[in-house]
């Protein structure tokens, strides 16, 4: 992946010195995400859920926050900021084509833990998008886990994860995420999980759309990059994570889709480059 001539996004914040504490879920991260992340890090989801409690603002631990620059950024953070800038270009153009205005998301690079609009975030949660503050939260330890535990390597695999989270931002702007949340109280956990899978697969599709359109605007892909992205999509499939964590696969508990599904939708997005082809079952919102 060639990003040497790509600019860094100006919408990235670097936070350091954050403390560790229990995860506050009242702000909107939710049970489903906690369970999936528990599987990623080989923990018993029930034990994780029992440990989760609402945390009051007064328990916030100290740290520092500053705008990310070339001078204070690590190589990973520089790459992440360049990928975010590329998504900004792609989605601004895509929304403009639909006579809409794209609101760029922020991104937070943190260590150990930090406060988000969706509650307290810590390293074990992995990357996520918070719809409450329109920000993507990244901790490098997640990518170390992908590489060490699942053999996922290469910058494009990391770019895929970032583009997937930005895909959730696009869904949020289009009203797709709100549609799913409005249905939650009327559905069983099994039914809601099925819709959650549709949302996640659509975010994979949108990550593929980004790669297609970004490469046409400013070619940056090298041979093997898409395979790297597909490998990352496969590594975070529910079936693979469940098998690694518990030794068995429980389809009714899927929330993100199987490895095959995630690879299929990312590849479809990359081959199409057209958001209109990305209805995984939830519709396309206001697109």
Query: What is the helical fraction, as a range of percent?
Result: 40-55%
User: Which residues form runs of ≥5 with pLDDT under 50?
Assistant: 21-60
Give a count of the beta strands, DSSP E runs of length 2 or more: 7
Oligomer: single chain
Apparent shape: globular
Listing every helix as H and every strand as E from the N terminus to the C terminus, the arrangement reads: EHHEHEEEEEHHHHHHH
What portion of the residues fall into strands of 2 or more residues?
A: 5-15%
Helix run count: 10
pLDDT averaged over residues: 82
Rg, Cα atoms, Å: 18 Å
Largest sheet: 5 strands, mixed
What is the first-to-last residue Cα distance? 30 Å
| Strand order across the largest sheet | 2-1-3-7-6
Count of the separate structural domains: 1
Classification by helices and strands = alpha/beta
Protein name: Neutral zinc metallopeptidase
Region (Disordered): 1-20
Subcellular location: Membrane
Biased composition (Acidic residues): 1-10
């Amino acid at each position: 992946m060639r990003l040497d001539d790509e600019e860094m996004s100006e919408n990235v914040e670097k936070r350091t010195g954050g403390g560790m504490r229990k995860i506050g879920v009242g702000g909107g991260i939710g049970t489903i995400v906690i369970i999936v992340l528990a599987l990623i890090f080989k923990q018993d989801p029930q034990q994780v859920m029992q440990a989760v409690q609402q945390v009051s603002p007064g328990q916030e631990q100290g740290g520092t926050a500053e705008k990310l620059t070339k001078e204070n950024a690590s190589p990973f953070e520089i790459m992440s900021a360049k990928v975010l800038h590329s998504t900004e270009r792609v989605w601004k153009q895509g929304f403009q084509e639909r006579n809409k205005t794209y609101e760029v998301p922020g991104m937070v690079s943190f260590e150990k833990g930090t406060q988000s609009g969706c509650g307290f975030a810590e390293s074990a949660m992995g990357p996520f998008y918070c719809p409450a503050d329109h920000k993507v939260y990244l901790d490098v330890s997640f990518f170390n886990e992908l590489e060490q535990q699942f053999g996922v390597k290469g910058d494009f695999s990391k770019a895929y994860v970032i583009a997937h989270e930005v895909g959730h931002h696009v869904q949020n702007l289009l009203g797709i995420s709100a549609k799913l949340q409005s249905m939650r109280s009327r559905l069983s956990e099994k039914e809601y999980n099925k819709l959650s899978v549709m949302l996640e697969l659509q975010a994979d599709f949108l990550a593929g759309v980004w790669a297609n359109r970004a490469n046409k605007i400013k070619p940056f892909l090298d041979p093997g990059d898409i395979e790297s992205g597909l490998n990352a999509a496969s590594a975070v499939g529910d079936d693979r994570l469940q098998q690694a964590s518990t030794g068995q696969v429980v389809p009714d508990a899927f929330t993100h889709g199987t490895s095959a599904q995630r690879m299929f939708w990312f590849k479809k997005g990359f081959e199409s480059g057209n958001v209109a082809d990305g209805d995984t079952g939830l519709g396309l919102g206001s697109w």
